[in-house]
Write a structure and sequence with these properties.
25% strand; 3-stranded antiparallel sheet; 2 helices; 7 strands; 4-stranded mixed sheet; alpha+beta
């Protein structure tokens, strides 16, 4: 399986350091975590919604394509975690607690979670502390530039 992320060069390694600096829907601040998406297009939308302003988008972004070996079991988030408001902000305790527990237990490498932006698509949370992270490979890192038509102001 291939997964994608859009990130700055300094965060392109599969070390999960980004999770140390801030919380996310699926982790508490201070936990190593790698957020990826099933599709490059979803990774782009995920990047866009997480910046306060389009002017804050860095110009040194990379599209990172990662291969997860076929034999790796990907856990799916249970429906009971997706309580009413799971997709709201601030993040629901249920998703943060479940994801943090997933990371700390180190039982599975990957957790498949629904995207808030495109509910029929999924993000894949990777645990960089799981031993199987060593079998994942970065297939490519290519410069990623958002097409400015996405940000065109409409009157």
């Amino acid at each position: 399986m291939f997964v994608y992320r859009i990130t700055k060069k300094e965060h392109s390694a599969l070390d999960g350091m980004g999770g140390m600096y801030g919380p996310g829907r699926w982790h508490e601040k201070g936990n190593l975590v790698i957020y990826t998406s099933e599709h490059a297009s979803l990774a782009a939308w995920e990047k866009i919604v997480h910046v306060a302003s389009f002017d804050n988008l860095p110009d040194n972004l990379l599209l990172v394509k990662v291969e997860i070996p076929d034999g790796i079991e990907i856990q799916t988030v249970p429906q009971k975690v997706l309580v009413k408001g799971w997709n709201s902000f601030p993040f629901a305790n249920e998703t943060v607690n479940y994801g943090t527990s997933f990371l700390r237990k180190k039982v599975h490498l990957a957790l498949k979670v629904p995207s808030v932006i495109i509910p029929d698509e999924h993000n894949i949370i990777l645990n960089p502390l799981h031993p199987d992270i060593q079998s994942c490979k970065i297939i490519s890192t290519t410069r990623f530039i958002f097409d400015m038509r996405v940000f065109k102001e409409h009157s």
